[in-house]
Amino acid sequence: MLRTVKPKNARSKRVLQAREPKEIEDPRTAIFVKGTHAGERVNAVMKELMALKRPHAISFSKKNAVRPFEDASSLEFWSQKNDAGMFVVGQSTKKRPHGMTFVRMFDYKVLDMCEVGVDDWKSMAEFKTPKATPGHKPMLHFASELFESHPRFVQLKSMLIDFFNGEEIDAIHLAGLEHIISISLGPTPPTMNAATTTLEASTSTAEDPSTLPKVHIRAYTIRLLKSGTRVPRVELTPMGPSLDLSLRRHTEADAELWKQAMRRPKLRKQDVEKGLGKKRKNLEVDEMGDLRGRIHVGKQDLGKLQTRKMKGLKAGRDDMLVDAEHDDPMLVDDEGGDDDAEDGERRRKRAKAA
Amino acid sequence: MDVSDILAAHEAKQKAVTVEKDIPLEIDAGFLTVTDLNPVDKESYDADREEYLMSIARDGAQALLAALFSLPTTSSPDGPLAQLPPPTTQLPRAKPLPKPKPPTKWEQFAKAKGIHKTRKDKKVWDEAKQEWVNRWGWKGANKDKEVQWITEVRANADVDHDPVKAARDARKARVAKNEKQHQQNLARAMPLPVGTSSTGAPADRKKQIDRTLAVTRTSTASMGKFDRRLEGEKKLKGVKRKFDPTEISAASEKSRDLAILSKLDKEPSTKKTKSSESSASDVLNVRKAIRSASKGKGSAALAREAGGGKGKNFKKGKR
């Protein structure tokens, strides 16, 4: 749909190169779009989420008539133009008041969507407490067993991790951990338990999202107190927006697209040596950091080993000497014994050789 | 000496930083995430929701921080950095995996020789000026020869040897060579289109060379008949002359002769008469009609206009 841009100067060429796919990806840029009628609550919530997501957030100022569940073409166009991986579409209708849709993209096509409704919320301004610096990575906390078992909550968890913290990093400065975002659910209703969630996922519970427990999002700043041990004690102070959401519609990812999106790059040699990858037998990295291997040799019959030949140790040697003494009268010497006989043999051999 | 007090104090400190739960908390240090799989306690939730949520969040944060503080650290100018392990949660990618690019000729050579890339600085120390100058760019050291007002010239140099021009041409030639090599690298990296073993630029070149070789082999005084063939040269294909058989059937001979006679009857046709006869042009001179209708632009322009006019009437979809 979009024409391919040919870079005319070094700056545009650099921008184009930055947008190419990489092995380790950058965090997803989220675009915040408002629908034809968003409403005051949705507007404010989107603003607060953008504050938490800075700097990887773009906000569209104009209202756009976009219906994510019906037509995804506008989303695809915007994601390609702005190089964005996620969307938050805010819309409020009579049937679905105060609705926000989280959309995730793969290869500029829609991967999966999740619609939530904002039931209750408190702005950051209402909490008169110090806030965390924008741009710092938040810690995330998910509290409920449904995040593991129920497919809708598994999708929501994956979506929220991608939204807040989707970047793979090597190292982090511990002093920079300032805030934690806690996503918890209401108590599991008795109709749902671990046994039924995975089985009935596609049938009753999906059709009736009102039975699903509510989602509570809270943000706290962290204070570290001395505790006498190396690990400090943590105390929390409520900071940011507090949202109460209820799940509404959703679309799951297309299986083929999901498989492509979940592809991982090949493990490099350093990673295998570190211990990742398939467990390879007979290889281990010892304490010095060297890679050691073990070679298994089969069982050996020590009797049949090929060693250096020492004639004196041959088994039938004594008998031979006795015979030699009888044959050659010259060499018979009762006193000398074996040694003389041996010398005699050697002399004889040398004579033969000469 | 009552040790039990000290022990009790130590215990209390340890308790303050450890978290006890029915199901241990799952920590994904790579993404700084902690998941608490214990079911939400309905009574505390109903009693005081915010307090309860804050307490379970505190427990989660404590466990996560304990894990983060136990990671190996490296020192950096800003302070100690904790080395994070690779994350355990699998998240979908935003873009497909990059296709591995084949290494360029230099990269292969460097790998084989063990040459590492060295990063060059933009500034370079100039001994004569005793200051840092740019290696390239505005007032760069690479243009010194073109800028200096005096240059030593060899005794046997040309009268009109221009050292400034020579230096400039050398620099431009270097840039052009680099660009050409870059284009060759890109062309080599491009995957060949499907099934192009016999077509494509290198194959075309090969065919061209073979054809030239064949021509040169026959361009001798005796048309290449008595030349000794070198080893590796293939036998040249000549044009095969076809002769009709001496005996043909009476029917075919009759039809052939009648065809000759009918040709003898006709007027000799020229190219101009042929083209005008094929198009029924007694009434309309097509060439002149196209010229006047397209206002001198030609038939292609007329066709384009006709197609575009129809397309313009369709309503374009709203964006």
Which descriptors apply to this entry?
heterodimer, A: 354 residues, alpha+beta, 10-stranded mixed sheet, two-stranded antiparallel ribbon, 29% helix, B: mainly alpha, elongated, rRNA binding (chain A)
Largest interface: A-B, 72 and 58 residues
Number of strands of chain B: 6
Note the beta-strand portion of chain B: 5-15%
> What is the succession of H and E elements of chain A?
HEHEHEEEEHHEEHHEEEHHEEHH
* CATH architecture title of the domain at 25-167 and 175-188 and 210-250 in chain A: 3-Layer(aba) Sandwich
How many whole angstroms does the radius of gyration of chain B measure?
A: 43 Å
Low-pLDDT stretches of chain A are 199-207
Helix content of chain A: 25-40%
* Helical stretch tally of chain A: 11
By helix and strand content of chain B, what is the structural category?
mainly alpha
* CATH topology tier name of the domain at 25-167 and 175-188 and 210-250 in chain A: Rossmann fold
- Distance from first to last alpha carbon of chain B: 84 Å
Low-confidence stretches of chain B: none
Q: What is the count of β-strands of chain A?
A: 13
Order of helices and strands of chain B: HEEHHEEHEEHHHHHHH
Q: For the record, what is the CATH homologous superfamily label of the domain at 25-167 and 175-188 and 210-250 in chain A?
A: Brix domain
Main location (chain A): nucleus
Pfam families (chain A): Brix (PF04427)
Region (Disordered) (chain A): 1-20, 310-354
Organism (chain A): Lentinus brumalis
